[in-house]
């Protein structure tokens, strides 16, 4: 079976779609899009943030979407609803029953049968366009309804095509925001009308309003299969038409579907695995696919091919690359480290886009969709930039990037969507006071890591005074560690501790977690954390306690059970919460404690138990590829604990062999005889020589070669246990 499927056909986009507000198994949609593509297409079962839910039984249409997360919302959306009989505009009223048995989702195309209308709808994508193929029953009155949603829209019939825009958004847009669409049909339009009217009049020419539902009538008697080509642009109608000519031209649905499949086969084929079960191969390839969907490229080529973009940060059209739809609090941890290895030139392109963001909006983004969004804490674009530079990627204006990172770390902003809230108090006290600023302890910890990233950039740019200043600030995590309780905790402006400490209380001074999770939020200095905990053995015992302490919680300042709490309990790994990002690196910290076999055991346990090839197969919000990239890296036996350091910590590879086709040459990760009963690393060889350390430098992997693991059913408690075997850290590692 393995040999008969191409990489793209191992992907199951329905993984992670069985989610809800109360409980996330991924919160994903079965998107049809290109790698980092501007336009995505998905079936719509809900007219809200949960665009598609596997448990739903009716489909409302196919949505042109840009939604990066249900918690952020969509923008520039248009839903297309094929109908016969009486035209319905209301999403619930027009919905058709469907069966998963007659649904086919792939990265390059989606197909479903709409039972109510006896109609099959299919969609495929290019980078900025889409093509629908709709097979109606034989009828003179086949309808396609175009719903622009709220916030303003317009559609007009121009010859035999529709031209229009939608301004639908969920925030983060300037006044000139509009998503332009050009729709071409493969046959004459026999009528165009307003589906929101009490009675449709079929001679309409133009519609405009807060919400527009234009409906096109087509004759499907002689040929039941209708093809619809859709060009999109954030710049103008003319640019949408140019994108359509350039990317679709005269190609039909089958040709474009084939092109999309080849594109995904090429990108997913960058990693070849051997020794996987079918379920593991599906899980891995789907995770790799999701790791390549975001950030979304917002730039568009002009007539000469030069890139330009509409700016959600300043409005207007500007030259060069731009990306959006990314939450750096999530993606800096796994997505970007993975991309530095597989697609380093894409990382440089993204950073060039970040430089444009800074020039146009004045700040680096924390979350962007499409513009600045006030979501999550910290300024983690710094980590993306520092990690790229540490790994030798510099094809961007590094000085401008550094000044932007420096501003994030030092200047207070009145806009909560940018900069660091509480940064002035952080500088004055050494911590963010919990009696003045929400989520203060989490902010302190993430500011400290961010300062370390600034220091790494300063060091690379030959700015030793800046490097020393920010390395000193990177130790600020010490100010919120209370040795009396052995945890990070809230600290007031007067230096006293927040009363009533309970390590299982969520919220308050913490972000989407508790003291159990944020104790480990010192990725840049595990050695220093070990010292605070009483040494390497004490650190290992505290890590053990994470998994051994019952998975109880107090809702704290949230006042109700948020989905991450319920997901942690469902995971049945004590206080370890794979469902959310803050603790994702913690199981890899055993290597600093001199007990790497526990990293191997726990990493394998998380991969085997919490990632499945099912609609409920992800352990929490997928978050722009972060949850998936964690799996990809861990399955390769690699993890970047502290992006900004060119270091890969070794874990437990999942397969017998993986070949990474890297720009400089192939990297083979070998583990002969590996399997479910062999999670432990007995020995490691790098380039044919025995490798004693618990980590490898990035350059050694990026250059290609062979990383070979000998695996076994029992731990090797003598390997990589010495202080000198541990990865680098800001502070020296003690006994």
Number of continuous helical runs: 19
Q: Name the shape in a single word.
A: globular
Compute the gyration radius: what is it? Answer: 26 Å
Mean pLDDT: 97
Query: What percentage of residues falls in helices of 4 or more residues?
Result: 25-40%
Coarse structural class: alpha+beta
Report, as a whole number of angstroms, the end-to-end distance: 51 Å
Strand order of the largest sheet: 6-7-8-9-17-13-12-11-15
Uncertain regions: pLDDT < 50 for 5+ in a row? none
Query: How many beta-strand elements?
Result: 35
The portion of residues forming beta strands comes to 15-25%
Topology:
Blueprint: E1 40-44, E2 58-59, E3 61-65, E4 78-83, H1 91-94, E5 96-97, E6 103-105, E7 109-114, E8 119-125, E9 129-135, E10 142-147, E11 153-158, E12 161-166, E13 179-185, E14 189-194, E15 206-209, E16 213-218, E17 225-233, H2 237-247, H3 253-268, E18 271-274, H4 278-291, E19 296-297, E20 299-301, E21 307-310, E22 317-319, E23 323-324, E24 326-327, H5 328-331, H6 335-342, H7 344-361, E25 367-368, H8 381-390, H9 398-410, H10 423-429, H11 440-460, H12 464-473, E26 481-482, E27 487-488, H13 515-518, H14 526-533, H15 536-548, H16 563-571, H17 596-610, H18 626-635, E28 638-639, E29 647-650, E30 657-662, E31 665-670, E32 680-686, E33 689-690, E34 695-697, H19 698-702, E35 705-712
Parallel strand pairs: 31-35
Antiparallel strand pairs: 1-3, 2-5, 3-4, 4-10, 6-7, 7-8, 8-9, 9-17, 10-16, 11-12, 11-15, 12-13, 13-17, 14-16, 18-30, 19-23, 20-21, 21-22, 24-25, 26-27, 28-29, 29-34, 30-31, 32-33, 32-35
